[in-house]
Amino acid sequence: MGTGEIMVLERALDDLIKKWERFFAGVVRQPPIDDRDRLARNLRRLSESQSLRSADRFRCEQLQHRFMTYAMNWERMLREREEGRGRSLAAIRGQRSLEDGDTSPPTSVHSSSTADASLYDRYVAARESVGDVVRVDRATFEAQIAAQRERLAAKLGPSIRFDVKVEGGKVKVAASRARAGDSRE
Fold this sequence. Notes:
By secondary structure, the chain is mostly helical. The chain contains 6 helices and 2 strands; from the N terminus they run H-H-H-H-H-H-E-E. Helix 1 (3-24) runs antiparallel to helix 2.
């Protein structure tokens, strides 16, 4: 018991974060509550272990704090969603279509993480999944991406792909060279 088990639990937390992101983005219908409870039990069991070295005990406590922060955010977002205060990705898209006077269904952009969401929609969903408030509108966001695309064209070439990533509870928009046949933004 110790370092190896902590590493396994760290990976399990990272996987759980991704499952919750998929749930809040609307890709999965059921929240991963069983996985959350299982990880909570394993963390509790590990923290109660008397055989941990000081360094491992510290890592375990840090992992527990990180898990509890995410768990509280997930509970808050679930409660808001159940009370109708949470904004789902579909509601955001529907509201935007009505505001624009557009009656056609939203266009889909292929994404490996969220099946039919634009870069901005994926960004909003990721920010909401970590409990952040989105303070940038679609037009500003797209203007920033266009400016970034121009700056990066010299380094990466004219074909640039942007992806939304969540690392350590922070949402990032990452750019990379698009491969042939890659239809993501």
